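Why do we care about 3D structure at all? Because function follows from shape, and shape follows, mostly, from sequence. That is the central idea of this module. The next example makes it concrete: a single protein chain, its amino acid sequence, and then its structure expressed as tokens.
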Amino acid sequence: MISDVGKWVPALYFVVWIFIGNFILLNLFLAILLDSFLEEDEEGELSEEEEARRQEIKDKKRADKEKERVRKLRKLGIDMFRSGNV
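And the structure:
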């Protein structure tokens, strides 16, 4: 702060330097953040075939779970009938 130009010129210089530095840093952070959102958005877009394949897999898993549930209930019913608890 000690200079030949006075006290206000260096103070103004440092204040402007801090504001510009913060502005650049904020823009850099926002650019990185938006870039990551755009990458996720591009990954999220699937073609119709991929979406149909994914739906088929979900339907198959759901059907397999239902078959397993029915199998367990039948086994439970058979076990109860054999033990005489029915």
